[in-house]
Design a protein that fits this description.
The protein has 257 residues and is an alpha/beta fold. The chain has 2 domains: 7-154, NADH:ubiquinone oxidoreductase-like, 20kDa subunit (Rossmann fold), CATH 3.40.50.700; 166-255, no CATH class. It has 12 helices and 5 strands. The protein has helices at residues 18-24, 28-36, 66-78, 87-91, 103-110, 143-154, 166-172, 178-181, 198-201, 218-227, 232-239, 247-255; strands at residues 7-12, 38-41, 54-60, 79-85, 134-136. A 5-stranded parallel β-sheet has the order 2-1-3-4-5. Helix 11 runs antiparallel to helix 12 (247-255).
Length: 257
């Protein structure tokens, strides 16, 4: 008797679809994955949707509306394991910049009929609403890390994803520290590895796409940069990008408001 394949579902909430596209960009590797699992629900790739429950759900995007606030509860009920992918799902994404302002003011200015808009005052991570089994960081995520996470949950083991800082990746590829050698502001010391330290390799400081590393110290980094002439407003903007609502980055940015 042929063994039944585990069922994979991919869900979208408030996001740009970039992390879902990372799965499609796996190309040859995706064919190997498809031999081991049944892609049961993935609207980005197929119109065929098979009913749950699902063995593994990958969730992209943040919660920004009452409708999605209810929908994520149903996704959780249908999923044996739920993994969030990308900065939107793990920290609220770039749209979490709304969390620092009055959303109603934006609605009144932008929309001719604001009474039709049904939204929440905040953009929040999936883990703020339901139990999450693993968070895969990035904007977008790393496809090799995604494959590792899928493989890990198929075999019921912990994913081997580094929680070190981007600085480790700079050292691995032989990139000199931009802050030390050129005085370029960089979030590498407080950002989780995963991107391969691409920006520093091209003489651009890290923007924090992968969110805060394990046990970051943004206060020390800000003091170091501000003592060397960085403007407080520039540091605030650097903190408030893709992972503005991640707790360590949020607390540090609010410290300088």
């Amino acid at each position: 008797m042929t063994a039944k394949k585990p069922k994979l579902a991919v869900w979208k909430f408030a996001s740009c679809d970039g992390c879902q596209l990372t799965l499609l960009n796996c190309e040859d590797e995706l064919l190997a994955v498809a031999e081991l699992i049944q892609i049961a629900n993935f609207p980005e790739a197929s119109r065929e949707v098979l009913p749950g429950p699902y063995d593994l759900s990958l969730v992209e995007g943040s919660i920004t509306t009452p409708h999605d606030q209810a929908r994520i509860q149903e996704v959780r009920r249908q999923s044996k394991y739920l993994v969030t992918i990308g900065a939107c799902a793990t920290a609220g994404g770039i749209q979490a910049l709304r969390n620092f302002k009055d959303v109603q003011n934006f609605i009144d200015v932008v929309y001719a009929h604001p009474e039709y808009i049904d939204t929440l005052a905040t953009s929040t991570a999936i883990a703020d609403h339901v139990k999450v089994d693993f968070e895969l960081r990035g904007c977008p995520i790393n496809k090799q890390q995604l494959l590792e996470v899928i493989n890990a949950f198929l075999h019921e083991r912990k994913p081997a994803i580094s929680t070190a800082s981007v600085c480790v990746e700079c050292k691995q590829r032989g990139t000199p520290c931009l802050m030390v050698t050129q005085g370029v502001p960089c979030l590498g010391p407080v950002t989780q590895a995963g991107c391969g330290a691409i920006c520093p390799a091209y003489n651009r400081g890290c923007y924090g796409c992968y969110g805060p590393m394990e046990s970051p110290n943004p206060e020390s980094l800000s003091d170091w940069l501000l003592d060397r002439g960085m403007m407080k407003e520039d540091w605030l903007r650097l903190m408030r990008t893709y992972n503005a609502n991640a707790t360590p980055f949020k607390a540090e940015s609010q410290r300088h408001e």
